[in-house]
Amino acid sequence: MTPLAAYLLLAALIFAIGLAIALTRRVAILVLIGIELMLNAANLNLIAFWRFGPHPEALTGMMFAIFSIAVAAAEAAVGLGLVIAYYRHRKTTDLDAMTRMKG
Amino acid sequence: MMAQETTGQAWILANLWLIPAIPMVAAGAIALLKQPKRRTAATLAIGGLAISFLLSVAAFAHVLSAWGHGGATRDVFNFGWLSMGETSLQLGWVLDPLAAVMLVMVTFVGSLIFIYSVGYMAHDENFTRFFCFLSLFAGAMLGVIIANSLLLLFMCWEIVGLTSYLLIGFWYHKPSAAAAAKKAFLTTRIGDIFFLLGIAWLFSQTGTTLFYNYGAGAIEPGALAALLAQPGAVGLTAAGAIGLLIFAGAAGKSGQLPLHVWLPDAMEGPTPVSALIHAATMVAAGVYLIARVYPLMAAGAGPGQTTVALTVVAWIGALTALFGALVAVAQNDIKRILAYSTVSQLGYMMVGLATGGVAVGMFHLITHAFFKALLFLGAGSVIHGCHDEQDIRKMGGLRAEMPATFITYMIGMLALSGFPIFFSGFWSKDAIVGAAHAWPGSQGPFILLLVGALLTTFYMTRQIAYVFFGQWRGHDHAHESPRVMTVPLGILAFFAIALGVLGTPLWPWFTAFIQSKPLEVDWHGFSEPGLLPLMSFATLLVFIGLGVGWRLYGSKPTRSASELDPVARSLPVVSGWLANRLYFDELYEATVLRWYAGLAWLSDWLDRRVWSGIVSGVASGFGGLGWFNKAVDNEWIDGGFDKGCEELVTGGGLLAWLQAGRAPGYLRLLGIGFLLLAGLALLVGAVSGQVRL
Amino acid sequence: MIFGLTVAFVLVAMVTVAGAMGAAVMRNVVHCALSLTVTFAGLAILFLQLDAQFAGFAQVLVYVGAVAILVVFAILLTRGVGTSLIYVFSKQWTLGLGIAAAVFALLGWAVLKSFPVSGPVAASEVTVKDIGAALMNQYVLPLEITAVLLTVAMIGAVIVAMPEKKVKEGEQ
User: Fold this and answer.
1) Residues 6-35, chain C: which have Cβ within 8 Å of A?
2) Rg (CA), chain A
3) CB–CB of A23 and B664 under 8 A?
4) Which of A57, A66, B536, B579 is most buried when burial is the number of CB atoms within 10 A of its CB?
């Protein structure tokens, strides 16, 4: 197994775990955590490909990853703000109970 | 001079159509008038006919001058009307001596009767309508006279029949008048059916309906030869068969046996109508028709022979003459006596045509027109004077009260009876009797005519005695009629005498004119073998009739209206039969009318049950269809629609479930979607060889 | 070298995965957040191993330093009174697990089956100066946009999370 393949596999695993968190846990914040994990896994993917790719001096992979980090941070902030706002109304963050839009 | 003559000839011939057209236009104008405008109506009608009279005189003069120059006296003007492929129906008019004398007679007598009607119908509120119909009749009759085409003749013939119906039933609120009008129309219709058959047959054989067409006409020698060669039916040639069919039409119009039944009932109309239509003109139209198609009827007979068609005409004419005279003896209505007399005299005319030719028959027609019109107008004057009384038993002694009427009536009566020398009737009737005697067919008509002449004198004497002699048996006083009525009577009386001059054997002007032969005074006319004995014998019969009639009625006049007629007293059975018109009407009612009523009942039954059954069947079929439509619409379409809406609502509910806002669910869907996308991408890559599987 | 991989890599990978698994299964949410932090740290080391030093340090600064703290704060702020949830996992957790497993299977299969790239190349020296130059030259637009994005996100988060104005008494 080449190092690249190892890194990619690792990233895939982390991604899958993050997806599992987002899909199976009941607490709203944990969904956000799962999403952060997925983003991180993608970042790992990017860096790995940058390192083992054809043109590492172009810095493309790393720049992408850096921007991804920045955006992920912003998105986390907004998402958590939403959860807090919802919690203020409903006093709960249970996803299964969030059925107010049900017709 | 010649040029002027030529243009003059061309003008009157080309404009001959004006003669019938002007009265018809006058009729149309009168129809548009309102009821109170009597003077205008009368002026239009009389004026129209007077103009036609002047034009007729011009036409007569034209023919006279042609005859005088020894040229052709017959001129035609034909034009095409309808073209059907190669053949075309042509119409046209003809101006020849026959037409010219008829034109003058009809317009002259017609004008006199129009003037008379102004006085007679003065009290009637439908004055304008009367003149409208009279004018229309005059136009149509003139059209019959000048027609050169059988088709045009038939068209005008039918209009004449229509106006006759309208005028007989003029007082339509009287049921008897309405019934009489219907009877007249239907009876003449029967004749007209045969007439039309004849026309159609003639057209199919000869290809033209024109009488004269410079050698190509239907009764010109070429066509006649073809018709003679063609076999018709029951052993007749086509010429004979067509001739008989046309005679059937003439028999209807002229009241010959057995289609005579309408003529006496036609007396329901006003007296001027009876005078004009049923004495002088319309009934003469039948005789005129036979005179017109005489070449057809006489085709195939050499000198000393006669054709089958003419034989039939002669016999029917003779029988009619006798029948009319017999029945007239027992009638008590002043107009009915004259009506049956007309029937009888028409029979004479037919015999004259059949045995003696056109000139003989036509001469009697002309003289008869004048004295019969005179008699009818006189009767009208009597009725008017006796305050609308028509039963002769309720009259009497009017000789003193109504002298002008009496004198003119006497003149007419003597003319009709055939009183010798001075009166035209003598010459015309004797011509017929002589021709019948000389007929190669049979002597039967001759004998019948002689008996008829005796009876004619007898019943006319009876009538005169009842009306003018003896005592007054009526209610109020009688009075003489106004001048507007008596002046025409006088004019007609003059002609009743004067016309005799035209037909004596000494100077046979009429015969020569009709036959367009040169005329000279024939000093030996009277010495023709058998002529003088015959004339003496006829005169003897006249005097016998006068004597017997006077003896029975004149010398011992009846005192009261309810007293029985002497003949009725002595021969009650015969008199009863005669008074009931030999039960002809009853016979027809039992047979023809019954069948007709049966046919009408059958038609009604068919109409009510079968046809309307079919119609209501179809209607209910449609109703059922509509019901079915409604059911389908309600159940399937509406129901289907409602069901569809319900499904839509349910579906919407289901779809709304998707929008319930379940985040985890959406995430899962995202995951599934990603899987599918990635799988697809890999597959594509594998297919294109970029991914090693 | 285990399977051609260095020992260091394997160790750090195991730590990272352990942290992720911990975040997945732990009951207490705070424990999940802390476990997440471990994962972030492990990832940072992996970045360092890949000679992406700047990315590694950025990871530590941003994720471990800010995001993890933020998550913990949010958890603490949204904790109810006595909120020990009986059910940790949602009702349809099997489906979610299945999907995640399928995704991993797909990705792993794709990785293992693809053509190998050429061997490890020599690491290039990437200095911060290079990154700075790149940011100012090639990536200036994404930089600016990211700046705007961060500003907007900050304002938005503040507004969203702001408590509502209290309605004055007598006003409805």
Assistant:
1) 9, 13, 16-17, 20-21, 23-24, 29, 32-33
2) 17
3) yes
4) A66
Pairwise CA distance, residues B73 & B97, whole Å: 7
Q: CATH classification of C1-83, choosing from 3.30.450.40, 3.30.70.20, 1.20.120.1200, 1.10.760.10?
A: 1.20.120.1200
Question: Measuring CA to CA, which residue among B40, B45, B23, B26 is closest to residue B112?
Answer: B45
Q: Is A103 part of any domain?
A: no
Site of tokens 């088709």: B151
For residue C124, CA distances in Å to B311, B655, B661, B688, C46 come to 150, 56, 49, 34, 17
Average pLDDT over chain B, rounded to an integer: 82
pTM: 0.62
Residue B177 burial (CB < 10 Å; 0-12/13-18/19+)?
buried
Q: Please identify which residue in the block is written with the tokens 């040029």.
A: B3
Task: For an interface test with A, give the residue of C3, C90, C152 to mutate (most A CBs within 10 A).
Answer: C90
Please list, in sequence order, all residues whose beta carbon lies within 8 angstroms of the beta carbon of residue B317, skipping any fewer than 6 positions away. Answer: B256, B346, B347, B348, B349, B350, B351, B352, B353, B354, B445
Let me know if residue A67 belongs to a domain: yes
Judge contact between C109 and B678, C-beta under 8 A. no
At residue A92's C-alpha, the angle toward residues A87 and A95, to 5°, is 105
Residue whose pair of structure tokens reads 């021709």 in the numeric block: B435
Residue A83, SS3 per DSSP? helix
Compute the residue count for chain A.
Answer: 103
3-state secondary structure of B186: helix
DSSP B480: P
Cβ contacts of B691 on chain C, cutoff 8 Å: 110, 113-114
In sequence order, what DSSP letters do the residues of B10-46 get, joined into one string? HHHHHTTTHHHHHHHHHHHHHHTS-TT-HHHHHHHHH
Residue A89 maps to a domain: yes
Residue type, B99: A
Cβ(B290)–Cβ(B260) below 8 Å: no
With CB atoms and an 8 Å threshold, state whether A33 touches C88.
Answer: no
Q: What is the pLDDT of residues C141-151, one digit of tens each?
A: 999 999 999 99
pLDDT at B202 over 80: yes
Which ipTM score applies to this complex? 0.89
Q: Is B388 helix (H, G, I), strand (E, B) or coil?
A: coil
Whether the CB-CB separation of A84 and C70 falls below 8 Å is answered with no
Give chain C as a 3 state SS string: CECCECHHHHHHHHHHHHHHHHHHHCCCHHHHHHHHHHHHHHHHHHHHHCCCHHHHHHHHHHHHHHHHHHHHHHHHHCCCCCCCCCCCECCCHHHHHHHHHHHHHHHHHHHHHCCCCCCCCCCCCCCHHHHHHHHHHCCHHHHHHHHHHHHHHHHHHHHHHCCCCCCCCCCC
User: Alpha-carbon distance B108 to B55, whole Å?
Assistant: 11
Domain that holds residue A70: 3-97
At residue B82, the 3 state secondary structure works out as strand
B146: how many CB neighbours lie within 10 A of its CB? 25
- What DSSP character marks residue A96? G
User: Per the structure, how many domains does chain A have?
Assistant: 1
The reported pLDDT for the residue numbered C59 is 94
Would you call B473 helix, strand, or coil by DSSP?
Answer: coil
Instruction: Enter the tokens of residue C93.
Output: 């957790």
State which residues of chain C have pLDDT below 70. 1-4, 80-88, 90-91, 115-124, 166-172
Amino acid in the structure at residue B161: G
How far apart are alpha carbons B333 and B426 in whole angstroms?
A: 26
Please report residues of C whose CB lies closer than 8 A to that of B692: 113-115
CATH code at position A91: 1.10.287.3510
- Are B401 and B569 a contacting pair, CB within 8 Å? no
